[in-house]
Every structure is written in C-alpha cells, then in structure tokens.
Write a structure and sequence with these properties.
SnoaL-like; six-stranded mixed β-sheet; Nuclear Transport Factor 2, Chain: A; 39% strand; 4 helices; globular; isomerase; single chain; isomerase activity; Ketosteroid isomerase-like protein; alpha+beta
C-alpha cells in the first residue's frame, strides 16, 4: 500500500500525463474537492472530472511540478506545493484564447484515508495572476 505522500505524488504524476481516469482512481468513494479560487466544490466524480477535463482541453500542454510536499501522519494530511503551467489553446473558463502561457504556484491540501485513498482535496492559487497571465494580447 502507498503512503499518503506517495498517493498524492501519484495523483500529480497522473495529472501530468492527463490520465483523468487514473487521477480519479486515487480517490475514495464519496471523496470531495474544493478549488477555492474557482468557487468550485463538490464530489470528485463530478466536480473534479469537470475541472480537470476542462483544464486539459483548454491547455493541452498542462503540466505540473511538485516543489515541496509535507505530511502529518496523525491527521492523515498532505500539503503539496505545486507549480502548474500551460499554454492556452482555446477559450476556457470564460477566458478568450490569446495563446498565452501561465506558470503559477498552487497549494494542495489532501486528506488521505487509512487505505491511502484521497478523501478530500482543496486547492489554492492566485486567480487574479492566472487571469492576468492569460489576458495579455499577443504582439
């Protein structure tokens, strides 16, 4: 069985490969996510699938790099600092496609159950910086 840190690392490895099915397989039944800056929260099967498929569709080169990862064994909590990158290829999330790229630090907080499945994941980032990076007109 994977450790809680290995579970979260596996999530980001599958995310990097755009393996939505593999990402979802790491979550416990009934797991929930909360993408705070987007005000999108709910069951991972619906909300997570929707967010991640939208991002991969809008940013075909969507990537991530885990820059730090911490664990609290007592609370079964993992905190991951992750830089997410991508180049916009189509209109997405109400942002007109201008072919711009972004590179933005994120913080993910995940609670992992005793069977190394993610029960809950919350994500934070500077949404204003995300929109600003994509809004610059191509010269």
């Amino acid at each position: 069985m994977m450790s809680q840190i290995e579970t979260v690392q596996a999530f980001f490895a599958r995310y990097l490969e755009h393996d939505l099915k593999g990402m979802l397989a790491l979550f416990a039944p009934g797991a929930r996510i909360d993408y705070v800056p987007m005000m999108m929260a709910g069951p991972v099967d619906e909300t997570g699938r929707n967010i991640w498929s939208t991002l991969v569709d809008g940013f075909p080169d969507l990537g991530n790099r885990v820059t730090a990862i911490y664990s609290d064994d007592v609370q079964r909590t993992v905190i991951a600092e992750v830089t997410i990158t991508g180049t916009q290829a189509r209109d997405v999330l109400g942002i007109a496609n201008r072919g711009q790229s972004f590179s933005l630090p994120h913080v993910f907080i995940a609670r992992v159950d005793s069977e190394a499945r993610i029960e809950f994941m919350r994500a934070y980032w500077d949404n204003a910086a995300f929109y600003a990076a994509l809004a610059h007109a191509v010269s």
